[in-house]
Design brief:
With 235 residues, the chain is an alpha/beta fold. It has a single domain (2-234), classed as Glycerol-3-phosphate (1)-acyltransferase (3-Layer(aba) Sandwich). The chain is 44% helix and 15% strand. Helix 1 crosses helix 3, helix 2 (15-27) runs antiparallel to helix 3 and helix 2 (15-27) packs across helix 5 (106-112). The protein is globular and about 55 Å long. The two termini are 24 Å apart.
Length: 235
């Protein structure tokens, strides 16, 4: 948490402007989610620089050329979104748990990027979010969802991926892009404000032809396996 305070202090005079601009992107119907994403990305890069965090991105060539795909990374904490907002050159919306959606600024980022909060204890609401995401992906929007459902609290060790997180991909018949996060827990979990590097690895996508005969739980297991192997190679 020390690094969050450090970021805020170093951006003390600029943060209000960034926040207001992102808020306006979420409020104005004339501003596309792509433009909202770019503003969030701009502010994120400034925040990461202020917080002395470097994002090392690999595998950007694996991001599909055509829009309408879903990123599936492992989940290490609140910092994860900052890593993706800086590193991903293609705009995306994301799915986040309801509790996290109430955090200041994150709430504005959700609105600006056309993202959605999901209540995993409300089956009807969860199904509605999944259906909406499916429809938006079919229209060409990209999404990011954490298939573990909750953050891992054991560093770079990941939790089991949930099959239900892949229902939208199966229904939309879209590319699935596994993504490996390494050391993304460190910026906000550790007390140090020393410079550090977070690694984001975009792995080769799984296209519909590859997974169409698989059950969602099998898809989840395969995506988890690929991410685990990437983390092991790079750690």
């Amino acid at each position: 948490m020390n690094r969050i305070l450090f970021m805020v202090l170093r951006l003390l005079f600029k943060a209000p402007y960034y926040t207001l601009r992102i808020w306006w992107c979420g409020k104005s119907k004339k501003i596309s989610y792509e433009e909202g994403y770019r503003w969030c990305q701009f502010a994120t890069k400034k925040a990461n620089k202020a917080g002395r965090v470097t994002i090392d991105s690999k595998g950007l060539e694996n991001i599909p050329d055509k829009n309408g795909f879903i990123l599936f990374p492992n989940h290490q904490g609140l910092y994860d979104m900052l890593a993706f907002l800086e590193s991903c050159p293609v705009p995306f919306s994301f799915i986040i748990k309801k509790e996290a959606s109430k955090i200041i600024l994150l709430k504005q980022v959700i609105a600006a990027t056309g993202s959605m909060a999901i209540d995993r204890e409300d089956l009807r609401q969860s199904m509605k979010v999944i259906q909406t995401m499916t429809e938006e992906v079919q229209k060409g929007r990209n999404f990011l969802i954490f298939a573990e459902g909750t953050r891992s609290k054991e560093g770079n060790k990941i939790l089991d991926f949930k099959g239900g997180s892949f229902k939208s991909a199966v229904k939309a018949k879209c590319p699935i892009v596994p993504c490996a996060l390494i050391d993304s827990f460190k910026p906000f979990d550790e007390k140090s404000i020393k410079p550090l590097t977070v690694h984001v690895i975009y792995l080769p996508p799984m296209y519909y032809e590859e997974y169409k005969e698989m059950k969602t739980i099998e898809i989840a297991g395969e995506v988890q396996r690929r991410i685990q192997e990437a983390i092991k190679r790079e750690s």
